[in-house]
Write a structure and sequence with these properties.
alpha/beta; Enolase-like, domain 1; eight-stranded mixed beta sheet; three-stranded antiparallel beta sheet; 16% strand; binds (2S)-2-hydroxybutanedioic acid; binds sodium ion
């Protein structure tokens, strides 16, 4: 079998642009993959064409060889955009390989170690406790979710005295956990804090309530600083969405910097890299809770990873349709994310494997992809009282 072409499509996942990739073969089999959305997503299609020039005519089932070639032809480690493109190529190669054998991708990974994959729903903000409870109850009734991810911030960290920030979180979390004893909550601090002692104090306010985890409270660049942070915390510390490769995860693990790692299968270079990261983490007795805030194809790829991963813990999930919370609160239903016709939807808080469906087990809507649905997206930039800028 030979790779004959790459097609990329600019589509949309709610309010964010999304690049979806098809790899075609001379056997008539097409594989699909999803790039991470870092912001300058118009840069991805030409980058994908460049990378495809390096692997055209290869046998798509030689996944490790193809990824090695893509890395070796670059000299310097690829960064955010390079790895977002390589991730989608990796996904498509696995999809082709499994479809060629008429099996689900997880069958190529040693088979499934679990029958279904537990998911948590991202809420990404910190609404009033009663609002959180009502939202969780609705989602529990509809899909069986029992775990949710909130923001821990109830005050403006850039403008308010730190003591007020802590007290606002402490008061809120106390009420929230008291009125929602049936649910588990994780808290994503979104790499906003600069000072490690603040990250430690905030985590220790959450700790008495036994959250599922406390995510990425400080900046990711100084990996070794995470070891010192974790040593001050009794709450499980999770991080990894901003890290790129097994080498960075090895540093994090060696520094004792995480109780849970959160690599993103659209960021790190795909399923092959994700498996290597998970194996490293397993040897440190650390579970993997994949970062997955985006689209239904990425969720399908993650499902296969999770199905076959012994140290998988829980998968981040966003419903493809309906109104949803994001960092700005509740957003209306904008028609949803439509490029996957039959997305994996949770039942009883879990995604079911699809043993009779080859590849990723989903059907891509190629007609829908014909329309360019680009939407500009960039991070917000908070302005502090002195006019300087911070992380949002
Ligand atoms: C998440 O963990 O889902 C978020 O950090 C995603 C994001 O980039 O805002
Ligand atoms: Na996050």
């Amino acid at each position: 079998m030979r790779l004959t072409g790459l097609r990329s499509y600019m589509t949309r996942d709610r309010d964010r642009p999304r690049v979806i990739v098809a790899l075609d073969t001379d056997a008539g089999i097409t594989g699909w993959g999803e790039c991470y959305n870092h912001g300058p997503d118009r840069a991805l299609p030409p980058l994908l064409d460049y990378l495809f020039g390096q692997i055209a005519d290869e046998d798509p089932r030689r996944i490790e060889r193809i990824l090695l070639k893509l890395l070796q032809l670059q000299r310097f480690p690829p960064g955010a955009l390079g790895l977002a493109a390589i991730s989608a190529i990796d996904h498509a190669l696995w999809d082709i390989s499994a479809k060629a054998l008429d099996v689900p991708v997880y069958q190529l990974l040693g088979g499934s170690v679990r029958d279904r994959v537990r998911v948590y729903l991202g809420v990404y903000s910190a609404p009033e406790p009663e609002e959180v409870r009502d939202f969780c109850k609705v989602q529990h009734e509809a899909h069986g979710f029992t775990a949710f991810k909130l923001s821990p911030f109830r005050a403006d960290i850039h403008a308010e005295p730190w003591g007020r920030v802590l007290k606002a979180t402490g008061d809120w979390v106390e009420v929230l956990h008291a009125i929602c004893p049936e649910f588990e909550f994780a808290y994503d601090a979104h790499a906003k804090l600069f000072e490690p002692w603040q990250a430690a104090q905030l985590g220790n306010v959450l700790a008495p309530h036994h959250p599922l985890f406390y995510e990425e409270p400080m900046r990711p660049e100084n990996i070794e600083a995470w070891g010192a942070l974790k040593a001050q915390l009794s709450v499980p510390l999770a991080t990894g969405e901003s890290l790129y490769s097994r080498f960075e995860f090895l540093r994090l693990l060696q520094a004792g910097g995480a109780d849970i790692v959160q690599p993103d299968i659209c960021v790190v270079g795909g399923l092959l890299e994700m498996r290597k990261i998970a194996a490293l983490a397993e040897a440190f007795y650390v579970p993997v809770a994949p970062h997955n805030p985006m689209g239904p194809l990425a969720t399908a790829v993650n499902l296969h990873f999770a199905a076959a991963c012994p140290n998988f813990k829980i998968l981040e999930y966003r419903l493809p349709h309906g109104a949803a919370y994001n960092g700005d609160g509740m957003q209306p239903d904008d028609g949803g994310t439509r490029y996957v016709k039959d997305p994996y939807l949770p039942v009883d808080g879990h995604l079911q494997l699809r043993p009779d469906r080859p590849g990723w087990g989903v059907e891509i809507d190629e007609d829908y992809l014909q329309t360019d649905r680009y939407v500009h997206w960039e991070r917000k930039l908070p302005i502090r009282p002195d006019g300087s800028t911070g992380y949002c």
